Amino acid sequence: MSGDCIFCTIVRREAPASIVREDADTLAFMDIQPMNPGHVLVIPKAHAAFLKDLPRGQAGPVFEAAREISFALRHSGLRCDAVSMYLADGKEAGQDVFHTHLHLIPRFAGDGFGLRPTPGFGRIADRAELEDQAARIRRGLAQSAR
Ligand code: AMP
Ligand code: ZN
Fewer C-beta within 10 Å: the chain N or C terminus? Predict the structure, then answer.
């Protein structure tokens, strides 16, 4: 837990939150600035600024919670024909709260929400480029604590 982290404060029940689900490892609550009605955040209870900092075994429960909540959203009566899940992992990815969290955003046609594609988006990449990138990531995986 981190003393000045708002999400740790919520885990300690020292700040208000509208909680939808809790288990031993995760907490899920309503986002105070929803992209669409029903926007939920799922967090690991353990403090970790980025996903890479979570101890082994603590990431899976976040996605298991998301699985259940994505079902619940579709059966909630809220407008939810689909769900976008989004995890901003780092400042340049749009992260504002540095306790890793997964957004679940109810979606429906014409809701206006979306990711902005980069220039050149949509081109099929060269296989050689993909192989080079995959090799770099495999080397990173070999260095990561698995
Ligand atoms: P991100 O930009 O991915 O780091 O997302 C942070 C999210 O946390 C934003 O959508 C905020 O609206 C939300 N947020 C910040 N403080 C709180 C809070 N006290 N309770 C619920 N959601 C919060
Ligand atoms: Zn925290």
Answer: C
